[in-house]
Amino acid sequence: MYQWIGPGLLYAIPDPVMCWDGKLSDGQKTASQRAVGAVNEKEELLVWAVCGAGKTEVLFPAIKTALLAGKRICLATPRTDVVLELSPRLKKAFPKIDVAALYGGSAERHKSSQLIISTTHQLFRFIEAFDVIIVDEVDAFPYSADDSLQYAVNKAKKSSAATIYLTATPSKRMQRLYRSGKLKAVTIPARYHRQPIPVPEIKWCGNWRKKFLDKKMPPVISRWVSERLRQNIPFLLFFPSIQVLEQVMPLFQTLSPTLKIVHSQHPERKERVLALRKGEVPGLLTTTILERGVTIERLEVAVIGSEHEVFSESALVQIAGRVGRSLAHPCGTITFFHYGKSKAMIEAIHHIRMMNEAALKRGLLDA
Predict the structure, then answer these.
(1) For labeling, which of 222, 231, 286, 348 is most exposed (least CB within 10 Å)?
(2) Where are any strands of DSSP class E within the chain?
């Protein structure tokens, strides 16, 4: 292992640093001001923002502040696909800054850029390198379950660094730290379009596992899918495992042969999500791999076997957050099909209602 012990890196500050002229909502402005304050005061801050709140745009003023001060910034996220999604957005907002995207196999992984977007795994390669570290989706797997990745983040930042955590679903531990005053936090309980988050419906579907083994589909699920097919509404159906997914695929293709599956091991994962976005396929059957990072107009969602342990409160809130994300279509349905209510299902619904109520009290909703 090699470590640089020479003088710190100096960066030329271009003019202008930022070329983003978008407008922030009231909720975004409050969070953005707090993030700028965290950078200036070298503090630790949690930004707890609902799915679809526009967390990335909230960061732009804080990143601009850090760049103008000559600081080195890293935006870290647990997953490569998020790096690939955010990288062009950062390059567009900061066109005169050399933005490097780091992930396994990246051609830019040896660049010493001032602004870096990286998977958390890549931070093992750094020690005391960053003045500001922003950890996006801090609750997401594998970061949330791997102490070594959390160690990598802490090792990569300077002792005086500002640290900003972003999530729609903070862990119970982070929520306790926030409520006890040990972790500073700001919440964005409303989406940028000022409409409430759709609250999931709970529908009993019987013993779905036995039905599928018998090559039968619970009628309530069949009706849900058929109705979306008839109305040409794009949809995602979430299943608890790849095994169940592949087992039921022929059954669902009797409703529409153009339905496709997506999971972590599928070679055409990105292409199939793009096909759904373009309207080339009516819906996708998937695992929790698509619980985050998917924004599709008019999308509706159902979870099959939502009582399964793989569907944690966090996962269910994120899945529900795929619906109603756009200004043109802020509504939509999210349905939990179950064979018995779970604690996670109840907590997920409570979480969403709590955020909607908080947004209403703060005057952040039009409805």
Answers:
(1) 231
(2) 44-49, 73-77, 99-102, 115-119, 130-135, 157-167, 184-188, 201-204, 235-238, 260-262, 283-286, 300-304, 334-338
Q: How far apart are CA 283 and CA 83, in angstroms?
A: 25
CA–CA separation, 122 vs 78, rounded Å? 10
| pTM for the structure as a whole | 0.87
Instruction: Give the H or E element holding residue 156.
Output: helix 147-156
Burial of 267 (0-12, 13-18, 19+ CB in 10 A): exposed
Closest alpha carbon to 189 in 348, 38, 30: 30
Task: State which residues of the chain have pLDDT below 50.
Answer: none
> Using CA atoms, how far apart are residues 28 and 365, in angstroms rounded to an integer?
13
Beta carbons within 10 angstroms of residue 1's beta carbon: 5
Beta-sheet strand order (sheet of 157-167): 99-102, 115-119, 73-77, 130-135, 157-167, 44-49, 184-188
Q: What is the pLDDT of residue 308?
A: 97
Q: Which of 187, 237, 229 is nearest to 362 (CA)?
A: 187
Which two structure tokens, joined as six digits, stand for 67? Answer: 């760049």
Q: What is the pLDDT of residue 87?
A: 92
Tokens of 31: 């969070």
